[in-house]
């Protein structure tokens, strides 16, 4: 009876599901995206990486979209930290916008992970609340400040989507062919303005592109 009882206990131990912490799942999912890109992330692959059953994962994340929202929330950690003293409202907006862009750039496909998510976590809500607060200090109503904040966030996410896509293209073997096709298509007689700006169209100065676009929004707020 003794050996049989011990054997049954061992079997129950071996069959006990591994416990999973939500933060561990989120950081593992981000690691998998960093390694192989967002398209490779599936609930099944994440469960395997965590050494848990898929059902365990679904108990915490009902859908993949829920998981993406948690990943987006984790990426924004620290973005709403205290702003440096003495900044003008323009500089505060620039600082907050730069923080979000860098948070997305820290992870492969970070902008794609964030796009379309609706996190209600403290990192996301604190960041948005801080941005809206800065905009309200310019005299905007709560509604106008919120709409403006959304415009700024959409610009940041859209810009970073393009930036990360361009980075992926630059790391592939397709870039030379793509540039050749673009150069051939920009006939000065047909597209004189684009042909004159070919160097800008193909520029990888994303810091400059970002600063230019954000400055246009800020100038609009200032009525310039």
Automatic annotation (TrEMBL):
Composition bias, Polar residues: 1-12
Domain HTH tetR-type: 19-79
Spans through the membrane: none
Pfam families given in the database record: TetR_C_1, TetR_N
SUPFAM superfamilies: Homeodomain-like, Tetracyclin repressor-like, C-terminal domain
InterPro entries, A to Z: DNA-bd_HTH_TetR-type_CS, Homeodomain-like_sf, HTH-type_TetR-like_transc_reg, HTH_TetR, Repressor_TetR_C, Tet_transcr_reg_TetR, Tet_transcr_reg_TetR-rel_C_sf
GO process terms (BP): negative regulation of DNA-templated transcription; response to antibiotic
Region (Disordered) location: 1-22
Keyword annotations of the record: DNA-binding, Repressor, Transcription, Transcription regulation
GO MF annotation terms: DNA-binding transcription factor activity; transcription cis-regulatory region binding
Feature: DNA-binding region: 42-61
Full protein name: TetR/AcrR family transcriptional regulator
């Amino acid at each position: 009876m003794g050996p049989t009882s011990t054997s049954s206990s061992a079997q129950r131990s071996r069959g006990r599901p591994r416990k999973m912490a939500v933060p561990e799942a989120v950081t593992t999912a981000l690691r998998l995206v960093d390694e192989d890109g967002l398209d490779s992330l599936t609930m099944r692959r994440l469960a395997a990486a965590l050494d848990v059953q898929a059902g365990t994962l679904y108990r915490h994340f009902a859908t993949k979209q829920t998981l993406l929202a948690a990943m987006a929330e984790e990426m924004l950690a620290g973005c709403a930290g205290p702003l440096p003293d003495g900044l003008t409202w323009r500089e505060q907006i620039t600082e907050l916008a730069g923080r979000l862009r860098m948070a997305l750039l820290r992870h492969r496909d970070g902008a794609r992970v964030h796009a379309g998510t609706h996190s209600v976590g403290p990192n996301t809500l604190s960041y948005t609340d801080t941005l809206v607060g800065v905009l309200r200090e310019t005299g905007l109503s709560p509604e106008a400040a919120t709409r403006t904040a959304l415009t700024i966030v959409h610009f940041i996410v859209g810009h970073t989507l393009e930036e990360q896509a361009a980075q992926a293209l630059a790391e592939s073997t397709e870039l030379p062919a793509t540039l050749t096709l673009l150069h051939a298509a920009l006939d000065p007689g047909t597209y004189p303005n684009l042909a004159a700006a070919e160097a800008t169209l193909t520029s990888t100065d994303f810091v400059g592109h970002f600063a230019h676009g954000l400055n246009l929004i800020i100038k609009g707020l200032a009525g310039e």
